[in-house]
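Problem 12. The chain below contains 276 residues. Write out its predicted structure in token notation.
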Amino acid sequence: MVITGGTRGLGRALAESHLRKGDRVFVVGRDGARLERTLEDLGTCAKAGGGLVRGAVCDVGDAAQVEELGRTALDDLGEIDGFICNAASNGYLYENLVDTPVEKLQEVVQTNALGVLLCSREAMRVMRAQGDRGGDLFLLTGAGSDGTATSLYSAYGFTKAGLPQLAASLRKEMEGSPIGVHTLSPGLVFTDLLVGGEDKFGQMGNFAVNLIGEDAETVAAEVVPQVREILGIGSSPRKGQDLKYLTPDKIIAKLSGRLLRKEGKARFYNEDEIWF
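Solution.
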């Protein structure tokens, strides 16, 4: 399993969960020092679960680096059965578009849009060369994927809105092949991307984050078994699936817990002005 953005946040949690189940994982990140520390930490999980962890530095928005990533991951893992396009950025900034620096817009689009296209292309290229073994590609959706507004981080929502359409297109292109294209909606995961958002959306916004937000480890613990089930099917041709963590029943349960027992209040963001 290859996981981009695997040195922090949800990507790292996904890698750890896979390793604890004995999987072979290849983590990808842009920061060499962080990657080194991550591989060292994840090595403990790999030993405990009987898995294998490897990794490489790669800017997913750079075509040459992504192609090298494909070759290195294939050499280290022997085959690429799954590829999770998890790397994403919101520029770590919440501002109106007119106030957003151009370099931040370029970072978001290069990572979230071009990066996903390049990684998807490379993953499918490798999987196609694997013949009947094929493989499965997972596209991480996020805020804006359903077309709803993402004010103050419009570039992020803009890039995420294209992923369901991309998944539909790739499924059509891979139809009849042993390559599955899936979407994975993790819900609102509290990572570094959200740290700068406190007080940007008002108290009701903070309330919403505390209500439906979840830590990366909890999401990974539920999502990874679903991913592994898809990988285990290995059918040819493969049918695309849409995995979702934050289901309506979870939202209802969270809302009930909040109203009846004040569960999750101020869990991530301050919300002193809200009484319930």
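Discussion. Residues 181 and 256 are 35 Å apart (CA to CA). Students who got a different answer should revisit the alignment rule from Section 12.3.
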